[in-house]
Structures
1.
Amino acid sequence: MFKVMRNGENRIDVEFSGKLDSAEMRVALDELSHQSEDIEHGLMLYRIGDFSLPTLGAMAVELARIPQLFRFVRRFDRMAVVADKEWVRKASEIEGALIPGLQIKAFDLSQEAEAEAWLQQ
């Protein structure tokens, strides 16, 4: 499951769980792009439930859309990742260190209020 919701003028909320195949990845990337149109200095709350690595086909779709993903990421200043798995939180923060201009901070599922507060700082 991958759901993207616009939450105000400069914020989107993303919920993800399960495993994405190539068709689902295309839909997810299209929805992220569509919902983030006209956002500048945006905020994103990313809730990750039961996560499984995407299929190889899904990863190929993501790689093919790297330019679109860079345009998408540049619209945001902060991303709070709420996940139950420690390795997902660590990977998210490493990703944030590699993307200039985007701060990513990860939180445990029990820390969603803290994630919200951090986004609004």
Note: The helical segments are 22-35, 56-64, 66-73, 86-98, 112-120.
2.
Amino acid sequence: MKSVLENRTLICCLAAWFSAQIVKYLIDGLRHRGWSLEHLLFGSGGMPSSHTAFVAALAACAGMQEGFDSLSFAFCFVLCFIVMTDAIGVRRETGRQGSAINLLMDWFFQENAAEDDGKDLKERMGHSPLEVLVGALWGIGCALLFR
């Protein structure tokens, strides 16, 4: 356990994720004039992408420690690419679908005078390309600071 707690790469990645989450929380709170502890800890979407910051810091640390021609860097870079494309593509589309389904459900309950259970689907799932880019730069910046 001691070696895990002394792993500078892991600490860097966690710091990148946590600090990006804090910035996202502050930006979201100022933008929507509200603060939610749940969003701070478990929120998805928003500026910057904390998942991207996490894996970008990992890839940058691997490249700086083991070389940018190493298998470790290649593995981390591929993982980072998958996370980034997923955030922009699949997760973003899932959020759009949630928004459309929520509109349909609102219409259904109004048209049928039925009682709404108030449980909307989550609409903010993915990220814009800019949010992912800033998350990547955030993660790389954290890796440079930890170096």
Note: The two ends are 23 Å apart (CA to CA).
